[in-house]
Known about the structure:
Blueprint: H1 3-17, H2 32-35, H3 48-63, H4 75-85, E1 92-93, E2 106-107, H5 115-129, H6 145-148, E3 155-160, E4 163-168, E5 191-193, E6 202-204
Antiparallel strand pairs: 1-2, 3-4, 5-6
Amino acid sequence: MKIRDLEVQTYLFVLLGSTLFVDKSRDRLRPAINVFLKDQRRVAGYAWGAAALTYLYRQLGMATRVGSKSICGCLTLLQAWIYEYFPLFRPSQILQAPDAPRASSWVCHRFAGGDDARQRLVRYRQMLDEMSGEDVSWTPYGRDAGTEVLRSLYTGVIRFADVAEGYDHARCRRQFGYRQTIPHTMMVPKDVYRPASCSTYIVFWEGNSANQYWES
C-alpha cells in the first residue's frame, strides 16, 4: 500500500470512528470500521447513512437497559432529529445556504454542570411527561418526504458490520405525511443464540435481508 493511500485510510478511520461510530471508550475506535476502508474504490459505494443509523439504533437499545448510564453512537444525528421533531427543545436557528448541512443551522450552547444541570434535567423530564401529539412537528422535512427520498420507505433490516437492526417506516407513517394505521407485527430475528465460548449473541434474520442497503 502506498503511503498516500495509508494516510487516506487512517484519516477516514479516525473521522468515521469519532463521528458516526463513537463508542464509550472516549479514546478508542472500533476496528471493524477499518475493514471497509482497505479498498478505497468501494468506500463511496457504501451506504454510510444506513450504517450510522443501524449503529445508533443498537446504542439506543443498549442505553435503555437497567444500569446503563451513558449512550454513544452518532449523537449529533440524534440531537438534530430531536430539534426537528420536538419544537419545545429547539435552540435558536440561523439561515443556511440551500446546499449546507441541515443540522448545522441549529445554534447550540454549552451549559455548565452542577445544580443548574440537575434543574434542567428535572424540567426537561417534566416537559416530556406533559407532551401531547400537538407538541410534535410530524413532517419537518415536508409532506412528500417519503416520495422524495424513496429509501426512507424501506422496510426490512439495515446493517453495519456485525450489527443488524429492523427498520419499518410503517410504525410512524405520519412523519412521511401519511395517515397512521395499525402497523403490522414487529420484525423479530428468526433465531438467536449465544455459544458457550462467546460473550455475544449470534442473530439470524429471515433470508439475506440483513445485507440490504449496506452497499448503495
